[in-house]
């Protein structure tokens, strides 16, 4: 892929034939909406864009195929002021194309939720993502399902530390190969985010010990480790030492309508309860 800078795109953006830089008329329509700040909203979602390489019938979806120009896609995303949620579920195999795409995306300042899942190594995207994380003050939710090693964890932690606006409210790295050392570095960087909740990490990806629970206890999303709002409230009381000492905690598989009964279901995490 030839080297391009912002000036290359700026001087061509209004005149480029969109059908020549995409694989379909549908994708050309998405690019036109991005370019013209006219991203269509559905009744369920406002300002959401999905980028996928499989059949996916949901809102504004860019279906990636051979012939799609990732540089232009990233440029138009970076300039768009209406995108609120970016769901990126695939990346090109060519690292130059990944770089060209992220070079554009990093300039976006309207995205509030960045959701990435592709199963690639973290170093393919994390370094390119760092400027976006640091400078997009509107970013509130970050979900990264990647192979995140120690070096990537360090880069991510530095980016989180450098953000002036500590308004991130949800962070997920559910599927990765984090070591305790890498996890500890990220959790330390997240300590300044007072409104943050963290989705649980896949237990098959990281061993659980007391240190694991200690690191995550105050920011884990209780709704993700329980089967009901009532159980989540019991977890919240136990975590905050707010349990009434006069009441016994009763754990049962039956649904009792009493506050002191923890009614265990399939989605309740016994490790966290213990």
Describe the model.
- The protein is built from 10 helices and 9 strands.
- Helix 3 (70-79) runs parallel beside helix 4.
- The model has no long low-confidence stretch (mean pLDDT 84).
- The termini are far apart.
- With 274 residues, the chain is an alpha/beta fold.
Relative strand content: 5-15%
Give a quick account of the main beta sheet: strands, pairing sense, barrel closure. 7 strands, parallel
Secondary structure: number of strands: 9
The whole-number mean of residue pLDDT values reads 84
Please mark out the parts with pLDDT under 50 across 5 or more consecutive residues, or reply none: none
Helix content: 25-40%
Could you give the topology of this structure?
Elements: H1 6-12, H2 25-35, E1 48-52, E2 60-63, H3 70-79, E3 85-88, H4 95-105, E4 113-121, H5 126-135, E5 141-147, H6 150-162, E6 170-172, H7 180-190, E7 197-198, H8 210-216, H9 229-239, E8 250-252, E9 261-263, H10 270-273
Parallel strand pairs: 1-2, 1-3, 3-4, 4-5, 5-6, 6-7, 8-9
Helix pairs in contact: 3-4, 5-6, 6-7, 7-8
